[in-house]
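4.2 Preliminary Data

To establish feasibility before requesting continued support, the project team ran the inverse folding procedure on a target of 178 residues. The structure was first converted into the token representation described in Section 3, and no sequence information of any kind was made available to the design step. The complete token record follows.
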């Protein structure tokens, strides 16, 4: 009996020690940001294929829409820039972050995907906030960038200082290849 009790106590001691090593706010939480990002991409693809501007607008957070210079122009740019039906996509990379600071929880993600039409390959970059208990208006898509995959080296910095914006990223001048 003492041996079983000792084993159980050792098990609980190790469990406590290892769970204390997890980052604050992430104890026992499964990170499903990749699944959420893939689901969001599917929604974007559906809205693009159906040319449904209202669906695209509804994906953005209230805060992003407030900060976006002109979401309607961005949507028209997307519809013109990706005129063909999308046939497939693949996840390239992504990251997520979350925090729990004395009960104020936030979580967000940044993911990019290659998206294919019959004739072109695009890079889609999504920045989204999925939890914000202090500012719920932040929850939703914050940024969407769509560029030709071949322009990745010159037009993509992962939502960094050169391309970060609220709403839909358009390259300077909003040029569309005709």
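Position-by-position output of the design step:
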């Amino acid at each position: 009996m003492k041996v079983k009790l000792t084993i159980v106590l050792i098990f609980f001691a190790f469990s406590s020690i290892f769970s204390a090593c997890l980052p604050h706010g992430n104890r026992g939480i499964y990170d499903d940001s990749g699944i959420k990002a893939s689901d969001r991409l599917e929604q974007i693809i559906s809205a693009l294929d159906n040319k449904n501007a209202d669906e695209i607008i509804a994906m953005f957070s209230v805060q992003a829409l407030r900060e976006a210079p002109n979401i309607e122009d961005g949507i028209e740019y997307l519809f013109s820039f990706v005129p063909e039906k999308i046939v497939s996509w693949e996840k390239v990379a992504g990251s997520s972050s979350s925090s729990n600071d004395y009960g104020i929880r936030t979580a967000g993600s940044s993911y990019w995907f290659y998206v294919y039409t019959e004739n072109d390959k695009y890079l889609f970059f999504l920045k989204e906030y999925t939890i914000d208990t202090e500012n719920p208006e932040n929850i939703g898509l914050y940024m969407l960038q769509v560029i030709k995959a071949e322009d990745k080296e010159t037009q993509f910095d992962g939502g960094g200082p050169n391309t970060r914006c609220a709403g839909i990223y358009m390259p300077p001048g909003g040029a569309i290849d005709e």
